[in-house]
Amino acid sequence: MDQGSNLRRPGDDQELSNLIGRALMGLRDSVIMVISHARQRAVQGFILVFIVILLLWVAAFLYGSFYYSYMPLVAFSTPVHYYYRTDCESPTSFLCSYPVANISLMRNNKHVLTFGQAYQMSLQLEMPDSPTNHELGMFMIKTTCFSRDGGQVASSARSSMLRYRSDLLRYVGTVLFLPAFLTGVAEQKQVLEVELFSDYRDDPYVPSMTAVIEILSSKVQIYSSQLYIHAHFSGMRYVLFNFPLLSAMVGVFSNFIFLSVVFVLCYVRLLLKVDWGPGQLRTDGLLSDREENTKNNQEEYEKYAAAGTADLMFPSDEPHKSEPSEAIHPIL
Fold it and tell me: Computed from CA positions of residues 299, 303, 305, 306, in that sequence, does the dihedral angle turn out positive or negative?
């Protein structure tokens, strides 16, 4: 009994080892399959994330390009420097001519004003709170816009004056702000803002190139002057300017949806590889499979019939080609 059991052990061990080997092989195949699927899913996920990020960047770039090209300059400011004549002989006049300033409406060889856009032009005057300016009273400011060829495009005239303050109020203000005046932190001056144009629209056929500002007073005293141009938006430009975050989100999302649809359609078109050739079309639509088979059978019948006719006209020495009926028989 012991010898029989010893004789059966090697076979049992071999069978057990075979079972273990097959189990290990199956486990290895399963692990390899799982790793392969996981790797494939990871690659697909990476490609999907990359495509989504790329589409988002393209959508943001398209919206930024649209915003930059559609939105005009919001504000423009430039210092105003006046020139005048001082070679007069009259001792009672400070200036021999009115202060005049010529301002260019170009920046980097481009028009500051967008055609059709409404603008507000205002002039800011920093004037000393001096007795001369108070005695001056009201004074006129004339503004004229000229085109490239020197033609007058628009003109306006506005009046202005210093704010009235009584002598007692000036004395009290001087006493209260005396330390600031002595140290130079504050100055005795007034800042006037004069609206030159409330709704100025540049003509695309005759654009404004320069603006001439003339103060119609020969005794006015000015520290400095600044020209401000502000755009008044309406419609879509109003929404884009006043709600920039919401507009950016809507614009980028719309571009992303459009680009995604285009990408999916191109991908499906590439997978299907549909190519409608001119030979596949007819007036009433595509040829059916039945019509194609009938046409092919007819062509083969004509070919074999022609071969049989040739054998009848020129018989051959070979016995299997002597009778044309054998060549035609398979078709019939």
Answer: positive
- 178: number of Cβ within 10 Å: 11
Beta strands (DSSP E) in the chain are 75-79, 100-104, 106-107, 110-111, 118-128, 139-146, 152-160, 189-201, 210-216, 224-232, 281-282, 285-286
C-alpha distance across the termini of the chain, in Å: 79
Once rounded to an integer, what is the mean pLDDT over residues 20-32?
80
Is 0.70 surpassed by the pTM of this model? no
Q: Which residue has the tokens 């004069």?
A: 194
pLDDT at 9: 58
Q: Which of 303, 291, 144 is nearest to 212 (CA)?
A: 144
Q: pLDDT tens-digit profile of 39-95?
A: 888 888 898 899 999 999 999 999 999 998 888 888 889 999 998 887 776 666 667
Bridge partners, 78 (sequence order)? 227
Specify whether the CB–CB gap between 72 and 66 falls below 8 A.
no
CB 158 within 8 A of CB 218: no
Residue by residue, DSSP assigns 278-330 as: GGGEETTEEPPHHHHHHHHHHHHHHHHHHHHHHHHHS--SSGGGS-HHHHHTT
Q: Which amino acid is at 62?
A: L
